Amino acid sequence: MSSKLLHVVLFEPEIHPNTGNIARLCAATQTCLHLIEPLGFRVDERSIKRAGLDYWPYVDLRKHTNIAAFQTSMPTSRCWYFTTKAKHSYAEIDYQWGDALVFGPETSGLPKEILEANWPQCVTIPMLTTHVRSLNLATATAIALYEALRQLGKMTGSNK
Q: Cα(53)–Cα(37) distance, rounded to whole angstroms?
């Protein structure tokens, strides 16, 4: 696994358009996308491919049967677990190449067991109101990924 990449990890994603949008985001940023099963859809469904349009060939996609298989495949990567329950902001992290940004399912977030086992690495995206429970998964992923890329010097001007 390259230490010159960032990794987006979706734990048991449920909504295929979100995953398709995140796949496009990963293709655009040369970020590896990890999907941890079970998935709430099939990766080859027409609708998920439509959300990613013609970018799927450019997605470095890796599937894992469970969280343990993912963790085994990434022994040297630091994982940041995104949750509304954390107090530490995603913007306070000093991101490094090889880091993995881990997000939970849309309807429930990461399980309590995963959060408790990794609490020092749990971060949140602060919101200015308590009237909204959480952000859309694709939106949250984009916010976090672009902050990491900004810190790593990849968001300065056009890359074309």
A: 23
Here the tokens at position 9 are: 């990890």
Predicted TM-score (pTM) of the model is 0.90
From residue 120, how far is each of 83, 86, 137, 140 by CA, in Å?
12, 9, 22, 20
Question: Please, what are the domains in the chain?
Answer: 7-151 (3.40.1280.10)
Contact 121, 74 (CB under 8 A): no
Angle between helix 16-29 and helix 137-151 axes, rounded to 10 deg: 20
Q: Residue 8 gets which letter from DSSP?
A: E
23-52 pLDDT per residue, tens: 999 999 999 999 999 888 777 656 565 655
Helix ranges (DSSP H) in 30-153: 46-52, 67-73, 112-117, 137-151
Residue showing tokens 């979706």: 10
